[in-house]
């Protein structure tokens, strides 16, 4: 039972990070109907900005306090993501209102390559470190209950707690604030929301800004674990099966989908890997997403589309 619980906890912690990245996809799709393929590039761009700002701030200010340096770097990167959201709305999406879905999809692909190229131009293409103070050493839990205890990575635990707090704050924001209610109204019906005075341009800038800050938090966490490198955008694409599983329009679906995929890939790697060969953790999420596309295309919590003639 001990090894099973150890694997289960590891899967839940990784799944929480997948959920965090998937929230960026869901937020933008709910508010604008755009499937944002640039979310992975946003994670990379935000992580690069924070890593480089954290390097530059001590040199420019003479400060040598890691907490203060990281805080200023995080705020600076967040402001950059808000500016980026405003530019995307004004220069790209604002010009493509009421266009076909494929047009908007191609626009997000263009934004992806722009962010990757501009990130390399502005911040360089080396592997950078982000040290946000998360503990690296493992710890053992329930040693009196299970022989040898349950090994838990403190860094993964801290990352999962940060992700859980952010997800809870976003849920409260959507449910309890006037802006959150406006976002939900836009998600339900753009035309109706606009007819009662809700400004779509401002709402879309807010949504892309929130998705940018979510990408920054995810990028900081993954950058602390893996280092900030250009493969980070590929890690973010693991959230695609999460949104397919949970549903493109469901915030709870993104959370539960991430947890299911995190747990599923860890358990399958440990218990099926010896029989089927290694590497199951790499493709498990995509195969599960394919199964859901065949059986329930709208996902667990997505809205079923019914065409009436």
Task: Outline the structure in words.
The protein is mostly helical. The protein has one domain. It contains 13 helices and 2 strands, in the order ααααββααααααααα. It has a two-stranded antiparallel sheet. Helix 2 crosses helix 8 (200-226), helix 5 (154-176) packs across helix 6 and helix 11 packs across helix 13 (280-295). The mean pLDDT is 82.
Task: Give me the secondary-structure topology.
Elements: H1 2-32, H2 39-61, H3 66-91, H4 101-123, E1 138-141, E2 150-153, H5 154-176, H6 178-188, H7 190-195, H8 200-226, H9 232-236, H10 239-246, H11 251-271, H12 273-276, H13 280-295
Antiparallel strand pairs: 1-2
- Mean of pLDDT: 82
Strand share of the residues?
A: under 5%
Largest sheet: 2 strands, antiparallel
Helix and strand element order = HHHHEEHHHHHHHHH
Strand order in the largest sheet: 1-2
Low-confidence stretches: none
Number of strands: 2
| Cα-to-Cα separation, first versus last residue | 55 Å
Radius of gyration: 20 Å
Instruction: Provide the structure class.
Output: mainly alpha
Shape: globular
Total helical segments: 13
Q: Roughly how much helix do the residues carry, as a percent range?
A: over 70%
The domain count comes to 1
């Amino acid at each position: 039972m001990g090894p099973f619980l150890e694997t289960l906890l590891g899967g839940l912690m990784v799944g929480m990070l997948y959920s965090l990245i998937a929230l960026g996809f869901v937020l933008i799709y709910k508010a604008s109907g755009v499937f944002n393929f640039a979310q992975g590039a946003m994670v990379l761009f935000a992580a690069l900005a924070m890593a480089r700002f954290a390097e530059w701030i001590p040199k420019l200010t003479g400060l040598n306090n890691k907490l203060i340096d990281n805080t200023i770097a995080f705020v600076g990167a967040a402001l950059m993501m808000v500016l980026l959201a405003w530019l995307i709305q004004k220069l790209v999406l604002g010009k493509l209102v009421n266009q076909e879905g494929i047009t908007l999809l191609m626009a997000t692909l263009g934004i992806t390559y722009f962010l990757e190229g501009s990130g390399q131009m502005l911040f360089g293409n080396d592997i950078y470190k982000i040290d946000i103070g998360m503990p690296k050493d493992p710890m053992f839990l329930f040693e009196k209950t299970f022989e040898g205890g349950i090994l838990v990575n403190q860094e993964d635990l801290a990352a999962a707690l940060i992700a859980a707090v952010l997800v809870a704050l976003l849920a409260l924001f959507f449910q309890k604030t006037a802006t959150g209610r406006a976002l939900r109204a836009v998600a339900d019906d753009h035309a109706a929301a606009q007819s009662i005075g809700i400004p779509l341009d401002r709402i879309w800038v807010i949504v892309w800004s929130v998705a940018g800050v979510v990408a920054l938090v995810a990028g900081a966490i993954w950058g602390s674990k893996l280092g900030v490198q250009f493969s980070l955008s590929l890690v973010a694409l693991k959230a695609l099966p999460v949104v397919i599983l949970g549903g493109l329009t469901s915030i709870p679906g993104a959370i539960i989908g991430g947890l299911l995929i995190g747990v599923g890939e860890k358990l399958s790697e440990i218990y099926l890997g010896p029989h089927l060969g290694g590497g199951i953790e790499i493709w498990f999420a995509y195969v599960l997403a394919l199964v859901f596309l065949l059986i329930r295309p709208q996902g667990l919590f997505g809205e079923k589309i019914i065409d009436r003639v």
